[in-house]
Amino acid sequence: MTFYRHLRHLSAGWLFVTAVACSKTGGKPATDTAAKSTFKVALLTPGPISDQSWNGGAYQGLMAIRDSLGAQVSHIQTKTPAEFDENFRQYGAQGYTLVFGHGFEFQDAAKRVAPEFPRTIYVTTSGSTAGPNLAGMTFAFSDASYLAGILAASMTKTNKLGVIGGTQLPPVVESFGAFEMGAHSVNPAIKVIASYVGNWDDVSAGKEAALAQLSQGADVIFQNADAAGLGVFQAARDKKNAFVIGSNSNQNAVAPDVTLGSVVIDLPLAFLTIAKQVKAGTFKPGVVQLGERSHVVTLVLNPALQASIPPAMRTRIDSLQTKMLAGEYTVNVDSTPAKR
What we know:
Largest sheet: 8 strands, mixed
Order of helices and strands: HEEEHEHEHEEHEHEHEHEEHEEH
Structural class: alpha/beta
Shape: globular
CATH class of the largest domain: Alpha Beta
Mean pLDDT: 88
Radius of gyration: 19 Å
CATH topology of the largest domain: Rossmann fold
Number of helices: 10
Low-confidence stretches: 1-37, 335-340
CATH superfamily of the largest domain: Response regulator
Strand content: 15-25%
Distance between the termini: 19 Å
């Protein structure tokens, strides 16, 4: 649901220009046949790596593991829950050292399969399940989402904001709650309109959801809908005086004329941190928590529009972010995002 003086800005194009590993939807895993390393790392994503968001960032992480650690890597895009189990099991049988299931929805499958392959470490992102060879990796998205709410509240002219998610996964709902809290810290009268696309890859549906919110008066929309979220940028471009806040990856360049900033997860850093420990044999399965303090999650303002943000609000955001990085300030979501 942003960061970045600290963030390594990896371009979306790099995903495809430098990638040696093949990506394939369904069927057998696509492997990097050129790599001969015995350190084998795989990634399952719930959507396309071309989304310039959640899945694309994870694939960047896989490529960082390949390039930095000399790993043999493989990626598969899953389509159904049944494929979660099938591909987790396939990678375990093939002797992969580390397998990432990228998303909260992979937890149950990982919990079922992990005991069958004790030599394989399974890690689910946004997951809170752990075992002898099973770990969760959670991202403290609330802090940066709270800052995004302050940003949105400083720019709205209508006192109506929107949040659009793919589906109502707990981490998404929590981040929207933090966003609303941030907005209300600036102006308690602000109304937040929430809607969910119902999936993560329908760009047209994402655009329709955004147009519906814009027609209700929302003029800043925080989206966390992966590929479907690209439609939100399209809608904002079609309507004058509307802005978007991106998520998961640095999306400021997706539509720089309407994007105020992005709540960024440095997935390459997060993935590489775990992989280094696994390769060194020092990784201890559990729930790994990463956020502002670890420089993995942060709000990154769009340089192209930064001058339009009221100076007092920029100062407020910078001050809070500094405190978050120092571990002196954290957001506890105690409210529920608005329902449509």
